[in-house]
Amino acid sequence: MxxxxxxxxxxxxxxxxxxxxxxxxxxxxxxxxxxxxxIVRVPSLExxxxxxxxxxxxxxxxxxxxxxxxxxxxxxxxxxxxxxGRMSVLFGSIVMYSLANIACGxxxxxxxxxxxxxxxxxxxxGEIGAAIVLVSEILPKEIRSYGSSVVAGVGYLGAGVAYxxxxxxxxxxxxxxGGGMGLLLLLLRVSVLESGLFVDLKKEQHGVxxxxxxxxxxxxxxxxxxxxxxxxxxxxxxxxxxxATFANEFGEALGIAEPVKPGQCVMMIxxxxxxxxxxxxxxxxxxxxRRRTVIYLLMASMTLCGVYLFAGVKTATGLYTICLFLxxxxxxxxxxxxxxxxxxxxxxxxxxxxxxxxxxxGMVIPMAFVYQGLQREFSISALVSAGLVGLVVYALAFWSLxxxxxxxxxxxxxxxx
Length: 417
Description:
mainly alpha; globular; 0% strand
């Protein structure tokens, strides 16, 4: 009787390739520069002489300007990524957001701050989508999920460094550090080559439209597919943009005597995200499913949101601890963006994978508007207002996941007609 030999093990050595390492470091800087405003929002605006009420209003305005920049930039860099290449985005975006963050260290007025955060947002929106697409296209499909996990897991540690920098230095220096790291990273990117799939597309598919953002809305099926991708990611920014950013308000509503620091909540959530994303790749491989991986993590994330808001936490330390576990359970971004990349052909992959997370980040604007509007117009407490927003957000995410295509082990060498 003939004995069947076991299937050869897939080598993880490609995970040490320069494009993977540089993409992970790039997302690390991206996270630092994206979150530094949320971390220094209160001290920076206090130093500019704003009252507590003004900090809430103007801080939200500045954050919204950054989020608008993220949405517009996501479309811009996505189109560039499919028309001119993934590396064009990785070079151009980092120059823009690094210079904008350095300039933030010199702001004197709210309008200057808002304009520079908008410009930074445009630049910041290009990094993660282009990085995930590049890594997904260069790695063997058997370890694609591991590569995405490495990029996201290492990248989210940038939040911890941002918080530590702010704790050690003043808020202006924290902006200088972030911008400087981005400019230094450019030296490493010089040696990174373009995606082979994209190069082949340019050579062989001359009649194929590349980077056509309107394709996502060319039919009802295309529109639903794109909106489903967006909806799956919204809970991540509900956690960061509402629960963490306004943590000081939730601390007061819970009756916590010690002032709760939003910056520390952001740091704890992102440290958790790093761990969750590092786990999501192996979990996806073990389950042989992207979709089930995201569903399980989302269920745990939703449960911890309820604990955060309604379990009656009485200490700041308790809230920070919940933020850590909440971040871990919301750490499905690596699998989520890999799913988006796998949904679309090479001629639209960068446009989709870059614009979708940027639209998700932009959803902070309506979420914050509804969260604050419920309190202002209906005198609903901060806790209940956030709970109602979260209920809608998670319901949309679960519904979208039930309809989305399973893409585990999918070959990416195809184009959209």
